[in-house]
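Q: Two folds, back to back.
A: First:
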Amino acid sequence: PFKKSIGGLFFHYYPTSFRLTEKFILLLVFSAFITLCFGAIFFLPDSSKLLSGVFFHSSAVETNTRKGTDSDSNIAVGTDEKILAKIRKDHEKALVEAKDTLQKRPDEIKQDIQNEKDKVFKEDLSKGGKDDDNLPVIEYVQPPGATGHEPSDPETKERREKIKEMMKFAWDSYKRYAWGSNELRPVSMQGHSSNLFGSIKGATIVDALDTLYVMEMYEDFEMATEWVEKNLDFNVNAEVSVFEVNIRFVGGLLSAYYLSGKEVFRKKAIQLGEKLLPAFKTPTGIPWALLNLKSGIGRNWPWASGGSSILAEYGTLHLEFMHLSKLSGNPAFAEKVMNIRKVLNRLDKPQGLYPNYLNPNSGQWGQHHVSVGGLGDSFYEYLLKAWLMSDKTDEEGKKLYYDALQAIETSLMRKSSGGLTYIAEWKGGLLEHKMGHLTCFAGGMIALGADGAPEDKTGHQMEQAAEIARTCHESYARTSESD
């Protein structure tokens, strides 16, 4: 023994009389006792009631049940009989359903499964108004006239069949040599995936969906749909072209949804649209040309006039993004593209023309280069189609288009010495008397918009459209095959 003084008092301490082995045995006994107690509480019958009574002060009804009175016993017996009757009924119902299922054909079983999925989907929507992806309920209505019609004119029918034959040849070749790749290289007969799409695959599949449907190639359409559902993935750590991904993937998915009503296309389009939204995180809201889909970091093409965004790229998002807002219920998509209009409206436009380069940081034009062909083309097309898509209610889009067309006619449209109408390019006030191949779309665009022009200009614009189309035709006809 030893003693210790605390505050002048002495305390005697004695070493323990238990040996180490005895301590170990006592510890084991104590552990076994604790385990037994907890096992009794959690695993013995009615232990949950015991827990609720001990720890949570069960109600009077539960307390009376524990006492086991005669009336309570009768209730318990009656309840047990009801439970057993329900089990027997459910068992018999299951046997009948199993017998019916065994007698059904495989296609009927498949249809039943789909019907059950649709039922669950509708129930989920009716409860919350949205599905698991928080998408609004859309009552799908198939556009009339997309399929199911044959032309009465024999020549038209023959041309139609020839076009379908060409499509089938191209599609079958893609399936055989490049399935899943972004494109088929026809000479080497190998698949290729351009870095414009990062590591996203299947551009040709998504691109072809609407054509397959309209041409009533339904077996191929279903094959392509299955690929999209199982393999189209946007969760990639890769940099993509916002413009190319929008017109090829978002546009392809949206058109496939509107033609077929398949939800997979709507969901995929919205998923991709959400991935593209960080491209708009610039001081002006003018989007970057390139975006890493994982990090959300964007940049512009190094060659584009001091880090500028390109008119044909940021101006060719409007149609798809307006539809993304409609189908997702998320106004952000529409707000982003409408902001582009606001920025353009605030800027002074040389001679009413839109230069191809705009700095997304300063909000000022870059190099004063104007072209209705490459770098500018589809901006004008989308202004017109935005007005048409709105059932001609988008007056701002209409005004922007016709004002731009007037500036193009005044400053860029010229006639060659040989009588061919062309649309020149403009660089800092000087005309370059050339028209690139991409400008040839303007013939169709001007013809499409002639119907909405003032009455005194409708015929004039149709003539312009025809003349530009003739110029493009002559550019091919007058080119030697050896060239």
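A: Second:
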Amino acid sequence: MSTPIRLGTRRSALAQAQSGHVAAALEKISGRPVELVTITSEGDTNRASLSEIGGQGIFATRLREALLAGECDILVHSLKDLPTAVPDGLTIAATPVREDARDIVITRDGTPLHRLPAGSTVGTGSPRRIAQVRRRAPHAKVVDIRGNVDSRLARVSSGELDAVILAAAGLSRLGDGSPLQREDAALGWEGLGLAEWPTAPGQGSLAVETTTDAPAELRAVLAQLDDPDTRLAITVERAILEGLDAGCQAPMAAHAVVEGDDIRVRTVVYSEDGERRIGLDVTEALNGEYIRRNGSGNGADAADGAYPTHAARELGLILARRLLEKGAADLVSREHSS
């Protein structure tokens, strides 16, 4: 029997569900079995607020240590949880087709966020979402929460909270295991449009990571999971975050999408209270000055010359500079840097 590919994953139901999707695709492509290796990160054991314990990179650190130590062959991350800097010796070998990048608001009866009664409690631990809630529903009270999907939705069902905000992709990947699919869920939801409510860089995307010295056969198999449009979009988004030098817990959003021969990018930086925002909405031709000029990058920035992520990163950095020139530096606290 072929040697299994060892896939490192966190223990949460969501992490294992999304890893399971990648594992199934890998088994089909490679003809090799894929074995899930569960790894506990600091983010799984420390229940303090993310903003207090170093941002979302805490979910990736222990997994990356395990990969470098040879405890597994690949990792699957939610891309929005990854810091923009990829450690030496590692590479993002594939970004599969992106799922729904929106946030959704879960309530007991489906009441839209902006129509919740004054004093309603909305749970989220994301500074970006907190700022957006304060902007869209200034009459609501934001509650900083942690926990898995089940525990968050239980706080709505019980009446402890009036609403929580979650990533649509995560619930989608849970499939039949999603609490919203259960007959006894009795919860409603509202999808938040990306035009007015852009989400975190990389949201809805997965990152398959391996070592730079991984066997060529493994890297060739992983490359077949890679979606060029997804990688192009997330490269722009993450370069904006990198250029702002603000860390993945900053109150900022960036969403890019390939539309035919163009790429459209919406990005916003918020003040923590949500009262101020600085944004850009630009469309760049894929054969234009920034995108089709430089060819691809390498390592964590490209899939071996398949398309021009080097130039996509340059576009993201240019947009970050434009945000800073418009005053974004006054809104992004360096306390959020990771």
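Q: And?
A: DSSP finds nine helices and 13 strands in the chain.
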